[in-house]
Amino acid sequence: MATTNILRSGAEYLRSFFRDRESLTVTYSRGATSFSVLATIGKTQAGPDQRTGLRLNMIEPRDFIISRADLVLGFADPDWVPLQGDAIVETDGVLTHTYEVTEPEGKKNVWDWHSLYKTAFRIHAALVGTA
After folding, report:
1. What proportion of the chain, given as a percentage, has pLDDT over 90?
2. Average pLDDT, the chain
3. What ranges do the domains of the chain cover?
4. What is the pLDDT of residues 89-109, one digit of tens each?
5. Which listed residue, of 6, 21, 61, 88, carries a Cα 20 to 30 Å from 103's Cα?
């Protein structure tokens, strides 16, 4: 077995392990389309503002690690990617937290690949409301 296959198998195992044991159900929305998916919670450290070099926003962004296959299937579009302004809703007991997909300070994208094998998105979001 080639080394690449061993590494890919290991990465897929870890992704499925966290998805099965550490994920929670969230609702992903864009416009009128929304559906439930499993997401693992992550965090991207916010960097300094690229123009001033200062860190302006003290709110830490939240990352949602979601299987690419789940999102592509939900939107029925093989070329689908997360966009600025998409919404992710997480329920925590009686509270509902709404996050907006957005670029964290110091980054230029609203998402990154979670692994070399491009099987999951790391989607950056900021809390915009709690009800």
Report:
1. 40
2. 80
3. 3-130
4. 999 889 999 999 998 877 788
5. 21
* Integer Cα distance of 67 and 32 in angstroms: 21
Instruction: Decide yes or no: CATH 2.40.10 for domain 3-130.
Output: yes
Burial of 99 (0-12, 13-18, 19+ CB in 10 A): buried
Please check whether residue 46 is in contact with residue 104, taking contact to mean a CB–CB distance below 8 angstroms: yes
How confident is the model over 40-72, as pLDDT tens digits?
988 776 555 555 555 555 556 789 999 888 888
Look at residues 69, 61, 62 and name the one whose alpha carbon lies nearest to residue 117: 69
Give the containing element (helix H, strand E) for 92.
strand 87-92
Measured CA angle at 40 (ends 35, 43), to 5 deg: 120
